[in-house]
Amino acid sequence: MCVTSNFTGFLCNDRITCLLPSQVCNSVSDCGNGEDEVSSLCSNLPNNLPGYLIFRCGNPRIWIYSNLKCNMINNCGDCSDESQSYASCPACGSQWWPCSPVLFQYCNCIPRSLCQNGVQDCSDWSDEYVCTK
């Protein structure tokens, strides 16, 4: 266990290299000796992975790597990975507009780049009439 980019990551055997959770069992050997791709970890996903590397979605049969939680993208499909109550996500950052998006891709916020783009991205149209880039 190690910390990389504010996430608990996978520590390679060299005791220096710290991988993001999504770099483990991704068919790319990111550790020098390939310990991030060994069958003892990767043969029965996610069950063989340490719990700190995964996040179980609202539907417990669906999981994502923990570094994909709270990334403003609906990775779980039910927005449980973007929920402040379920996933302990922070509020929208300055580059995001808080609203109920109409797009399946987003959950609680849309990128400000979508503001005033002539397309309804928020259910209340606030992205077109209130939000500024």
Strand content: 15-25%
Ranges where pLDDT stays below 50 over 5 or more residues in a row are: none
- Please write the string of helix (H) and strand (E) elements: EEEHEEEEH
Overall form: elongated
**Oligomer classification:** single chain
Whole-number radius of gyration?
18 Å
Describe it for me?
This protein has 133 residues and is mainly β. It is built from 2 helices and 7 strands, in the order βββαββββα. The protein has helices spanning 39-42, 126-129, and strands at residues 2-4, 7-11, 18-19, 54-56, 63-65, 96-98, 109-111. It holds the Pfam family LDLRAD1_C. This is LDLRAD1-like C-terminal domain-containing protein. It is found in: Endomembrane system; Membrane. Residues 90-129 form the LDLRAD1-like C-terminal domain.
Tags for this model:
single chain, two-stranded antiparallel ribbon, mainly beta, 133 residues, 7 strands, 2 helices
Give a concise summary.
By secondary structure, this protein is mostly beta strands. The chain has a domain at 1-71. Helix content is 6%, strand content 17%.
What topology emerges from the helices and strands here?
Elements (H helix, E strand, L loop, with lengths): L1 E3 L2 E5 L6 E2 L19 H4 L11 E3 L6 E3 L30 E3 L10 E3 L14 H4 L4
